[in-house]
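Exercise 7.
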Amino acid sequence: MSPHEFESARATGSYNSFVVSNRPYFPKLSADPNDAESILNAASSIVCYPESPPEGLHSNLSTSRVSGGITNVLYRVSGFPSPHPNSVLIRIFGAEGMIDRDLETSAYASLCDAGIADKYFGRFANGRVEGWLEGYRALDYQELGDNVNGIASEIAKLHATYHGDGDKEVTLWNQLFGWYEQASISVNNGTFLNDSDCGKAKELLEDYDILNELNHMKKDVVPSDSKSCCCHNDLLAANIMKNEDGHIQMIDFEYGGYNYLAFDIANHFNEYAGGTEDAKPDYSLYPCSLKQEEFIKSYLKSYSHFGGEELFLKDLMIEVEAFALVNNLYWGLWAINQASSEGCTEFNYLLYAENRFTRYRDCRK
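Solution. The predicted structure, written as tokens, is:
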């Protein structure tokens, strides 16, 4: 939240809640992912705002865990009476220190207002309440190639029509070098849950020579004049919803921001391999050059339809190939930092990092 927004909130709100981006924000209200009552409290406080939740409401509500998130913990809360929506999605934030939640939530509100994202009801201390997409389901990574036109169209719509309210400076390299520094500090300080994880992380950073590879990518590989725009940056299958009519809706924009257009497409191609279930991407599923061309042609058609300037197929395909390399370093470093903060019990982040770095090395050859 900017200083201006904060002062405005203080002037118009109360000690316990105020309004940011035209939605309520409860900075002292937290939700514990292992405590159903705290989840219901966060949901009902925001859904019923500006009124207080009616007495006995919680006895009519139910919670259910939603699969698909690695960074966050997701719950569906159902049973709200009319005129409120019956169900909402509760997102409890993870990846502490890696995402500026004030900036990210402000951007998400703007995306909702622009009709790119679905609905956003309000925020609490460690998460927010979003709309529940009734009748939609997340795609499986093995379905991505069967939904090329719908996905390409939604990405093109975001790139061509949404310009955001913030800075138009590309943050990719600052983010990558920042994540490398964060990972290095965690290794040097031993801030992992166990020594073996710390040793493995150190081995990965050194064996794959990550810092030199980042410098090589920035200086020698990625085109300096690559087209930039507002990007999603995390278009894996779990963040792409589909209803019975075939309509595609992108969700979970927390890694979104101003970035290189080709990075967004390259990230999506890498997600054809999956890996967010077992940390083992299957790169035999990575789209071949013909499948990539099919996707990019569909994208360019939609991009032009939504008013985007002229882009060229051959140039874009070359840029996507370069950014596919960078994207493997991106998520590999992310995974090392997740291993430091979350551990590898529920998800083997270090195995995932190793597989992304190995993919980088194999393709770089």
